[in-house]
Amino acid sequence: MRDPYPGRLAEAPRPLAECVWMFLSPLIVYGGQPTPFTGGVVATTIVNARVFDGENIRPWTSVRFEGGVITHCTEQPAVMLGDEVVDADGGTLLPGLIDAHIHLVPGALEQSLTFGVTTVLDMFSKPDTVIAAKDRATRSGAADVRSCGIGATAPGGHPSLMYAPFPTVTGPEQAAGFVADRIAEGADYLKVIAESGVSGAFTRPSLDAATIAALTAEAHARGLRVIAHATAVTAVADVAAAGVDVIAHIPAREELDDELVIRLAETGAAVCPTLATIENTLGERGDSAVANDPALGPHLGSAWVERLTVNRSSDRREMMPPYARAEHNVARLIAAGVCLLAGTDAPIPSTVYGASLHRELELLVRCGLTPSQALTAATAGPAGIFGLTDRGRIAIDHNADLVLAAGDPLTDITATRSITKIWRAGTACDRHAFPGSPAETEQLAALEALNAQVAKVMAAIRGHRPASK
Ligand SMILES: [Zn+2]
Which of 60, 71, 129, 294 could form a disulfide with 125 if both were Cys (CB 3.0 to 4.6 A apart)? Predict the structure, then answer.
């Protein structure tokens, strides 16, 4: 398998928002000097931990961080005078989780952090929303965020019904201008939406293969990764041929053919299947499984438990493809050695920021990833692919984005839910802060509006559907 990122962005520039965060961190001490004992907490050392570094279990039992950055990873306790000491009691320390596919609404970052997700990657939001979120991410109690801003789609293409008006692309000659505009707006990567081969009632205008190739080449030339939305086999083939870095979603209506699976493995493109959304869309009840999980439910708050357990047993429609085919396609990618990323597509109805990522990990393991590989798909994997060189791993000089889980997720992936402590950039998270907070109220109002829009989209789709039954 070739190196998927030759010569591109070996070192991602540290965005301004993040610099501000580091500057404001209350734990910053005198640069480079030994930590003076001040009587307060200036640094933290975790002891008695099992440590998963993003790829492997290490022999370390202790991790120390100071000023928001990891300073020691050791087999013996790394405690220094004045440190706060946290006894992990044999629990597993993981890098903070990364959700590689979300869409921003207010409260997204706060709710994500509640479940150990310390970084979210937004996959289509308007510039105002992204600016507000990046500002929020500089304060405590919120996950960090990267975003593509507006994705490239054809006029009238997906997701016009959700977000229009926004700039679109009509042909390859517009690729350079579109990418330049997104960079000017602060995009961290480019999203392209490929819908060739989407059939029946869901048919929408799509970028053609030549335009997708031109956008991808332009973004790569400007140092941006490219993420492609593709839900049909033809679209997957188009974006694979263009050389995109990540393919979002997984076809469920058709089986991926052998040749395409092999090509995906050869190109080195990663796939972020977002099964936690697809299972619900196709009539399975992953949402209730999340709400009823004793380790997740109590941290959701009543408003969310209600949303996720609402009776919608009639949602399974005859025209839907079987969800099992989506898992089957993911299983074949895994068998071929394709790199997978964990992403939820929250807040699509039936998903919830943070909590649904734990469901996604469970589904990826069900498809054939080992628990260790699934954890990498939510930590070092996305960090590497998106050039986030300061996170996704427990290693010296990396951000102290950490999750402490009581059990052993390396043997039972659902143990990631038994979280006893979360830190983002060295600051401990209050897991009770989100339910009932103004951020939650704001989020629920935004989702109300989003749901009304989804209902409109569904009505529009049904309006185009030839009369059935
Ligand atoms: Zn999405």
Answer: 129
